[in-house]
Amino acid sequence: MYLVITTQPITGYKVGKYETLDEAKEVIKGLVAAGQRNVMIAQEIPMKLKVEVEF
């Protein structure tokens, strides 16, 4: 999963999730073409947590 993060002047941040890097790149190209300059891309790091409880 890839996260595309854009900053919004009033609302703060907007985050979009995309399956592939190519999808994320296409979204970023569209945002930059529309005039958005504060764009970040990040890769989601999957985490697995196992909890055991014994009474």
Structure report:
- By secondary structure, the chain is an alpha+beta fold.
- Helices cover about 25% and strands about 35% of the residues.
- The protein contains one helix and three strands.
- It has one helix spanning about 20-35, and strands spanning about 1-10, 10-20, 40-45.
- It has a three-stranded antiparallel β-sheet, covered by helices on one side.
- A hairpin with a 3-residue loop joins β1 (about 1-10) and β2.
Q: What is the SS-derived class?
A: alpha+beta
| Total strands | 3
Shape: elongated
In which order are the strands of the major sheet placed? 2-1-3
Question: Roughly what fraction of the amino acids lie in strands?
Answer: 25-35%
Q: Roughly how many Å is the radius of gyration?
A: 16 Å
Q: What proportion of the residues is helical, as a percent range? A: 10-25%
Enumerate the spans where pLDDT stays under 50 for 5 or more consecutive residues. Answer: none
What's the overall average pLDDT, rounded? Answer: 88
